Amino acid sequence: MTNWKTALFELQKTDMSFSTFNEVRAENLDFNNVSLANSKFTNANMRNLELNDVNLFGTRISDVNLSNTKITNGNLRDLVIDHVHLAGTSFRNIVIPEDLNLDDHSNSIKFEKCNLTNSQFTDCDLSHVEINNCNLSGLKINGILVEDLLKSYSQRE
């Protein structure tokens, strides 16, 4: 970092709209009550970034490493997660808002073309869940193979 300028800023009530920062080292910054609407971060190291009480509506995140990230008390309505590695990921205390119209299928949570091998669902409300065109080999419900349940069901008919 030779030939770099060092500057310490304490900005208050300052409009920096449309500013450009290139090759800037800006570590340990503290933003409070700041609007960063329509900002763009490219090739940025934001390791250990902490976001509290932040509106990220309409945010697009791609080619990002979110390992060891924790999201709590978040609203992820209409979130799309595509081509993501979820090894070791936990979903806990996930709820569908009570005011949501469950008859409107556009409000449903969808898992499409997912490999959920060896996943575990514990104490989950799976009422009205539909499973279509899925590989169910080895799938157990309360310790009972679903394949055996389906065979038993088809033999009764």
Detailed description of the structure:
With 157 residues, this protein is largely without helices or strands. It is 7% helix and 3% strand. It has a two-stranded antiparallel sheet with strand order 1-2. The longest helix has 11 residues, at 146-156. The radius of gyration is 23 Å and the shape is elongated. The N and C termini lie far apart (76 Å).
SSE topology:
Layout: E1 140-141, E2 144-145, H1 146-156
Antiparallel strand pairs: 1-2
Keywords:
single chain, two-stranded antiparallel sheet, little secondary structure, elongated, 1 helix, 157 residues
Tell me briefly what this model is:
With 157 residues, the chain is largely without helices or strands. It is 7% helix and 3% strand. It is elongated.
| Global shape | elongated
Overall mean confidence score, pLDDT: 89
Q: Sheet bearing the most strands, described?
A: 2 strands, antiparallel
What percent of residues adopt helix (DSSP H or I)?
A: under 10%
